[in-house]
Structures are given as C-alpha cells and as structure tokens.
Amino acid sequence: MELRQLEYFLMVSKLKSFTRAAERLYISQPAVTNTIHSLEDELGIQLFDRSQKQIILTTEGKIFYRHVENVMKGVSKTLLEINNLKNLNGGLLTIGITNLGSLNPDTEILQKFSKLYPNITITLVEKDSFTLQQDLSEEKIDTAFFFTSDNPAFTHMFLGNNELTLCCSFNHKFRYKNSIDWLSLSEEKIILSRNSGFFGHCLKEHIDKIDPPPQFIFEPMQVQTIKSLVASGAGISILPRELCETDTNLVTISFSPQFFLPHYMAYKNSRTKSHATEAFITFVKNFVTKGVDTL
User: Fold this and answer.
1) Dihedral (C-alpha) 217, 218, 219, 221: value to the nearest 10 degrees?
2) GO molecular function of the protein, one example (predicted)?
3) Helix (H) or strand (E) holding 243
4) pLDDT for res 293
5) pTM of the entire structure?
6) What stretch of H or E contains 157?
7) 74 Cβ contact partners less than 8 Å away, ≥ 6 residues apart
C-alpha cells in the first residue's frame, strides 16, 4: 500500500467523483480509477458503491476512510515537523557542560545561538568532564564544553584560556598577596572536588608536589557552594578568575607563574548529526574564527 493510493482514495471520497478527483490531482481519470481498483484488490474489499449517479463509500469504505484520514493527517504533521527541523524552525539540542559551565565564552555562545535560533530547544546536562566525554561517545549528548582535548574520537574547538586563581575570604592570611606559589598551599584546607575532571586534568600534578599536602574538605560539585564556603572562611579554593573576581566576598590571587585552563567545545567525529547540531557546530566555528561581533 502506497501513500499515493491513500491520497487518491481520500480525494475521490471527498469529491464523490473519479473525474473531479483526477482534475484536482492533475492526473488522468483512468490513473485514478486504476489506482483505486488496485487498492480494493489489495484490501480485498469494495470501497465505493459505483451503482449510483454519485459514487459513495461502502460501509467498509467509511471505516477505511476514518483510519486513512488520521494516517494522512499524521503524515502531513510529520512532514511539516521534518521540514521545520531542516529549516531550523525546530529541533532539539543537548549540550554537556561542567560545573564550571558559567565560563565565557560558553554562556555567550549559548545566549547568542538561542537568540538566533529561538525555536531550537536546548537542554544543558551538567556533569564532570570524564562523564561528559563518556556521554558524548555514547551519543547521549550532541556536543560538550570541557577542558581536555586528548580524545581522538572527538573534534575539539579551542575557545580560549581561563586563568585559574586562588580564592580566599577577606579574613584569610593570603588576602594581601598579589601572587602565590603552589607550595604555599601546604596544609591549607581546600574546598574542591577531587573526583571532578577539572581537578584530574588541571590541578593534580601541581597538588601532588605540595608537601605536606593540603587537606580537601567538603568536596562540593557546585561552584556557588564552593564560593559560599570560601567566603565564610571554611577554606580556600582554586577557580577560574572570572567566576570569582566579581564576587565582593572573595579575594582572587594569581598563581606564580600564572596558570591557565584551556577550554574546548567538542563533538563526536563519526556521529550522524541533526540539523540543529550542525547549526550549533557551524555557529561555534564562526564564533572562534570570526568573532562574536560578526555573527
């Protein structure tokens, strides 16, 4: 059974005439008649009573009509939705971010892309870098922002560097320092999750050299929780400068030498991508190569 057969059947049913249906469909009358005969043979029932001046649906034809009408409405709706996806008037996009996902340019990219494509629904999934890479490999997410570029299965787009700084309260002994070295953190209480990809990729080699080592406490995953604990004087933390420098309850201190966190947007190489994902990748490429002012 073909959609063409159902389309012809509905037109004949509505106009009660093979001739008028053919005119409306811009085909010959024999083509319509032969298609309906073929459909009746395939179903094993007679759909139309041809004994009257106007052809009318048989009892079986009326039942078939109700179902076919619903099917064709569903087909039309599906084609419309697919066309909307192709034209980026709709679609879904799932993007992975770390608990440091409020970094620029992530937020700027997301805001401007959403403004450019308001009908694309964006879902943000917040996890650590390791889990985001696994989700990207398993195609649970479309793209991700994180801090490593060592997976050959992904294409990584470099978005820039973020300076990592020490954050402390205004009552901490480090508060007047202009810069600090890693060894000065010996026996300090550090509020940071050691299970995060952020720690594993960026901080572990520096922390491991400190003797006696610092003490990790609380180990929250949310940045705001870390900042609140630091502001209360519970300990210090190591965070990107832009997440702390506008907080009037925190002091940010550069490391000596300065320490920068490389930042990437990644997507899986082999995956068949949706139109929404392709549009997002193209948008980020333009952001990186041309700058946001030219978008």
Assistant:
1) -150
2) DNA binding
3) helix 241-244
4) 45
5) 0.69
6) strand 154-168
7) none
CB within 8 Å of 73: residues ≥ 6 apart: none
CA-to-CA dists, residue 276 to 109, 285, 292, angstroms: 14, 14, 19
- 246 vs 251: CA distance, rounded Å: 10
- Answer whether 103's CB lies under 8 Å from 161's CB: no
Which position has the token pair 């320490």? 259
**Residue tagged 């300076």 (tokens):** 163
| Beta-carbon contacts of residue 87 (< 8 Å; ≥ 6 apart) | none
Record the tokens describing residue 105, joined without a space: 């340019």
Orientation of helix 59-86 relative to helix 275-290, angle to 10°: 10
Distances from the Cα of 57 to the Cα of 5, 17, 39, 192, angstroms: 16, 11, 14, 74
Cis peptide before 214 (omega within 30 of 0): no
What domains can be seen in the chain, in order of their start residue? Answer: 3-86 (1.10.10.10), 92-159+264-294 (3.40.190.10), 163-260 (3.40.190.10)
- Residue found by looking up tokens 């890479």 in the block: 133
For the segment 273-286, what is each residue's pLDDT rounded down to a tens digit? Answer: 888 899 999 999 99
